[in-house]
Amino acid sequence: MTELALFNADATEQLPLKIFTEKAYLDYSMYVILDRALPHIGDGLKPVQRRIIYAMSELGLNAGAKHKKSARTVGDCLGKYHPHGDSACYEAMVLMAQPFSYRYTLIDGQGNWGSPDDPKSFAAMRYTEARLSPFAQVLLSELGQGTVDWTPNFDGTLNEPVLLPARLPNVLLNGATGIAVGMATDIPPHNLGEIAAACIYLLDHPDCGLDNLLDIVPAPDYPGGAEIITPREELRKLYQTGNGSVRLRARFERDNGDVVMTALPHQVSGARIMEQIAAQMRDKKLPMVEDLRDESDHENPTRLVLALRSNRVDVDLLMDHLFATTDLEKSYRVNLNMIGLDGRPQVKNLQQILAEWLRYRVITVRRRLEFRLNQVEQRLHILDGLLIAYLNLDEVIRILRTEEKPKPVLMVRFQLSDIQAEAILETKLRHLARLEEMKLRGEQDQLRREQEQLKELLSAEKRLKTLIRKEIQDDTKHYADPRCCPLVERRPAQALDETSLTPSEPMIVVLSQKGWVRAAKGREIDASALSYKSGDGFLGQAQGRSNQSAVFLDTTGRTYTLPVVNLASARGYGEPLTGKLSPPDGARFISVLLGNPEDLYLLATDAGYGFICTFNDLLSRNKAGKVVLTVPEGAEILPPLLVASLETERLAVVSSSGRLLLFPVNDLPRLPKGKGNKIIDLPGEERLTALTLLPLNQNLILTAGKRDMKLKPADLEGYAGDRGRRGKPLPRGFQRVERLAAGE
After folding, report:
1. Residue among 612, 582, 596, 493 nearest 549 (CA)
2. Which one of the listed residues 102, 127, 222, 332 is annotated catalytic?
3. Fewest CB atoms less than 10 Å from the CB: which of 172, 399, 535, 716?
4. Are 697 and 716 in contact (CB under 8 A)?
């Protein structure tokens, strides 16, 4: 890119705008990725977090120190260690201090640092105090032992560590979230004991597979204690690819008929849950819930109480609905993206993360041991010089007192190195006189033993791994705790439909001749006696329950569906169906039906065709309805009949010429829609005038004008035949039957 740069006469660099823009954007992108958004696999921290932790340790704010005003701490951090703004610095500090955000907090705070109910409700930094938590020693304890590289800080005033020498894989313990340019990271927190056990297992079995590690680390472990309901196979895929999601569900228990929620998903506000449930109660979508209370306190951080209307409420069904419609169940994205040891961002799987961190740990421990070995060898070298000085004390004192430049004289006289001579010169005369051979040789022996141990550790890979294993085990004893989130595989929650949430009460739906509809509570209502508008009158009614849907049939064979609960009250005239539905021009509503989805109905036209369908087949979602019954030209629809029993009931039909036919209703086909099959043969202009379903051993009553005729079961056998036949003629006087009915 520099080859494209031009220099004018005054040596000013010139770049094409396109090149400059691309370079500026790429530089910014890499800055965001490396310095803002992504944690490093080594210590699991972003630069701002690393600088805060290091600054606080340098300021003496360790776990045993007194708390210090956060504003002063932030000020000291800002002035010395990093280029971030004070609010960015404080927000990073707050996150590391919240036990409901960080699984293992790095900062111990006094004052309002937010609450699980509202993590962002923390006080301003002038009102809070902070110090490092004991867990922070996992990152800091080896800092002065030659374990880290140092780099100048942003303004070059002092050096800061490139990485902190983490004794545990903090990148998985506390996780991280961040948004960079073109990439993001979402690393969930994990349980320390599980991660430590996985590290130890990987040390002993470097070639182990992912499944072996998943037996030890089955899932993330969020603070808060909600259930992880993601199936095991999905969790395996997540840890294999580094991408996926984890689903958390609130935990609840039953207490004296109430439902008590004791744990919410990660960073879900209790106030938000209360608001969501209250909104449903306000909209009358939770009739089974009577009251909602928040009984949370310092002892029970989460305690949301649902008071149920009765002990007959199905709690599992209710909670399943709430899981589906509120934040009581929430999915969390996982993207194991981090900066590796090569300094590049990469999405890694679980095995890669642990193996790479163990490489970092081996390097760190080796550097620590080498640093200590160098210290020991230097001290032994100095002790050799001090021993020579002790054995020749008088002469050494004489040289020091008489010689103008005693250092070269000492070096030549006793074959001392520069370091040894410097150590003798730095020791005061009175201290030289107090040197004891036993103490010197005792310290030498002790250091030589340590030297041997260090050399053995550094020369044998197995011993080094044993040391790392022991250190991980020690930290586990200090900081490990039980798993917060239990693993419970459950199916995804499903919201209840509107009918399930509606109170179930007996209802009667009344349809008028002009297409007005109304609903009345109860069973014993005389619909024909209700008041109707002038020119209008009773047409039909249907009995059912308030949580059902009513089906309306028009003259074109279309069906329409409306929830009973939404219909107008029977106290008035009701409301026209055309206000809620959109039937074709000229269509009239002729019938209303109510029933269960599996109920069977017989649909027929006076053209002599019909079929059987379920109530579910009649339901329609559209305002314009759906065509269920195909009506031949010039034909009309007969009132639908409820089929009680396909096996025992017979269908009785009569034609306009006075012919009667009986056949088993089961002979008609089961269809979701259509014209149907032939019921009775109708030559010429004949029509099907009436039909009814006749239970076993029931009489058939025929009505023609003012005359009734009763046909007993024995008499009816003469009219029995196959479906689609002509039927047998009825006696004189019953050539124009208007109505058929079953009777005693």
Report:
1. 596
2. 127
3. 535
4. no
Residue 18 burial (CB count, 10 A): 9
Q: Where residue 501 falls among pLDDT bands split at 50, 70, 90?
A: low
CA–CA distance, 578 with 154 (Å, rounded to integer): 74
Mean pLDDT of the residues in the chain: 90
Element (H, E) at 614: strand 609-614
Instruction: Name the CATH superfamily, with its identifier, for domain 365-479.
Output: Topoisomerase, domain 3 (1.10.268.10)
Rounded to an integer, what is the distance from CA 166 to the centroid of its chain?
30
The matching CATH number, chosen from 3.30.300.160, 3.90.199.10, 3.30.1360.120, 3.30.365.10, for 45-165 is 3.90.199.10
Q: Where are the domains of the chain?
A: 45-165, 251-327, 365-479, 498-743
Q: How far apart are CA 371 and CA 145, in angstroms?
A: 7
Neighbours of 636 (CB within 10 A): 13
Measured between alpha carbons, how far is 458 from 451 in angstroms, rounded to an integer? 11
Query: Looking at the predicted structure, is the pLDDT value of residue 302 above 50?
Result: yes
- Beta carbons of 76 and 89 less than 8 angstroms apart: no
pLDDT at residue 2, rounded to an integer: 47
φ/ψ of residue 63, rounded to 5 = -60, -30
Q: Express each pLDDT in 205-220 by its tens digit.
A: 999 999 999 999 999 9
3-state SS class at 627:
strand
pTM of the model: 0.72
Spatial contact of 150 and 162, defined as CB atoms under 8 Å apart: yes
Query: From residue 337, how far is each of 26, 170, 186, 242, 397 by CA, in Å?
Result: 19, 14, 7, 8, 65
Residue 430 confidence (pLDDT) above 70 = no
Question: β-strand 558-563 against 626-627: which pairing, if any?
Answer: antiparallel
On whether the CB atoms of residues 39 and 29 are closer than 8 A, the answer is no
State which CATH number among 3.30.1390.10, 2.120.10.90, 3.40.50.150, 3.40.50.1980 fits the domain covering 498-743.
2.120.10.90
Compute the average pLDDT of residues 455-475: 93
Architecture category of domain 251-327 in CATH: 2-Layer Sandwich (3.30)
> Taking residues 574-600, what's their average pLDDT?
93
Q: What is the mean pLDDT of residues 255-271?
A: 90
